[in-house]
């Protein structure tokens, strides 16, 4: 998808920037991991999850909260991401049009 977006961006702006797109993707993956770890630690503190707990020693009512957080609560982020995927409009035909226009532009530049 990022390569197709880079092609469309080049068509719109005349500038090739796939490096920027891929670096933003890598940064957001790292930031998401870091934020998830931080947020998880904060939530464990908020629910008073016992430190160094052994299997079977954590009360069921305490275990309910991490289940809620890991399941239904995080689904909100998945649904938000799905909304962005629905906005993606490059299909096979559209990409062929983009490539043809870029090729035409490059041929005109060579002359």
Write a structural description.
The protein has 111 residues and is an all-alpha fold. It has one domain. It has 4 helices and no strands. The longest helix has 29 residues, at 18-46. The mean pLDDT is 93.
Number of self-contained structural domains: 1
Distance between the termini: 31 Å
The major beta sheet can be summarized as: none
The count of helical stretches stands at 4
- Give me the count of strands: 0
Summed up, what is this model?
With about 110 residues, the protein is mostly helical.
Furnish the topology, listing elements before pairings.
Blueprint: H1 2-13, H2 18-46, H3 60-86, H4 92-110
Helix pairs in contact: 1-4
List keywords for this structure.
single chain; 111 residues; mainly alpha
């Amino acid at each position: 998808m990022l390569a197709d977006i880079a092609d469309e961006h080049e068509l719109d702006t005349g500038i090739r920037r796939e490096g920027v797109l891929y670096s933003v993707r890598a940064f957001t993956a790292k930031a998401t991991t870091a934020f998830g770890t931080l947020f998880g630690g904060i939530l464990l503190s908020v629910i008073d999850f016992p430190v160094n707990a052994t299997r079977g020693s954590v009360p069921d009512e305490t275990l309910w909260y991490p289940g809620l957080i890991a399941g239904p609560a995080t689904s909100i982020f998945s649904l938000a991401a799905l909304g962005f995927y629905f906005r993606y409009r490059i299909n096979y035909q559209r990409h062929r049009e983009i490539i043809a226009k870029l090729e035409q532009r490059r041929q005109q530049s060579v002359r």
